[in-house]
């Protein structure tokens, strides 16, 4: 049973249809919003069926002046980091230790820049530190500076491009990619 404080955190709204055409559908939708647990449920079951929140849930969020939707209700395909880091690591894991370290450096650099993108002071400090480190590396000299661009890209990819590329079109297909239509 909910105590008084928890009961004040739970809010319910009942939706009544706006037009007579909506009467054929279910007329009442109850949305339970628990601010303490940061959860919302609706009797329309739209989130359970489709995987994203219904308009009634968004209405309750707007009534309660909540601008940020909890991350558990945001689909992965809508996020900024669409490709999971684990998948990137698996892609480059079989190319050797050096390529994996290079890939980790790119991932780390990208995540730092993304986190500091809106902090001007932090980003300028990071940039100055990075420029200092670059000048130190330039003083020491790099083993890759004598290599060609092709050799550097090959070492990053972990595989070379073949000299001749043999791609053959499939035989026996005459419809140019369109579905065959029977004409009677």
Please give the structural blueprint.
Elements: H1 4-9, E1 10-14, E2 30-34, E3 39-42, H2 46-50, H3 55-63, H4 85-92, H5 97-116, H6 120-140, H7 149-157
Antiparallel strand pairs: 1-2, 2-3
Helix pairs in contact: 4-5
Calculate the mean pLDDT score and round it: 73
**Count of individual helical segments:** 7
Overall helicity: 40-55%
Strand percentage = 5-15%
Biggest sheet descriptor: 3 strands, antiparallel
Organism: Lactuca saligna
Region (Disordered): 165-184
Protein name: Protein FAR1-RELATED SEQUENCE
Biased composition (Polar residues): 165-176
Describe the model.
The structure is a single chain. The protein is mostly helical and 184 residues long. The chain has 2 domains: 4-74, no CATH class; 85-157, no CATH class. 42% of the residues lie in helices and 8% in strands. The chain has 7 helices and 3 strands. The chain has helices at residues 4-9, 46-50, 55-63, 85-92, 97-116, 120-140, 149-157, and strands at 10-14, 30-34, 39-42. The chain has a 3-stranded antiparallel beta sheet. Strand 2 and strand 3 form a beta hairpin. Helix 4 packs antiparallel against helix 5 (97-116). It is flat and about 70 Å long. The model is unreliable at 1-16 (pLDDT under 50).
């Amino acid at each position: 049973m909910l105590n008084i404080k928890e009961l004040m955190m739970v809010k319910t709204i009942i939706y009544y249809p706006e037009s007579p055409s909506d009467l054929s559908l279910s007329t009442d939708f109850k949305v339970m919003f628990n601010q303490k647990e940061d959860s919302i449920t609706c009797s329309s079951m739209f989130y359970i069926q489709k995987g994203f929140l219904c308009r009634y849930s968004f209405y309750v969020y707007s009534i309660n002046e909540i601008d940020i939707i909890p991350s558990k209700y945001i689909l992965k395909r809508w996020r900024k980091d669409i490709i999971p880091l684990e998948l990137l690591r698996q892609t480059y894991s079989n190319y050797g230790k050096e390529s994996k370290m290079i890939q980790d450096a790119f991932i780390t650099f990208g995540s730092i820049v993304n986190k500091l993108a809106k902090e001007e002071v932090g980003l300028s400090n990071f940039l100055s530190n990075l420029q200092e480190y670059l000048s130190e590396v330039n003083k020491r000299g790099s083993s890759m500076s004598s290599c060609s661009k092709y050799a550097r890209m090959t070492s990053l990819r972990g595989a070379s491009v073949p000299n001749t590329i043999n791609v053959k079109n499939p035989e026996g297909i005459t419809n140019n990619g369109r579905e065959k239509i029977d004409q009677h």
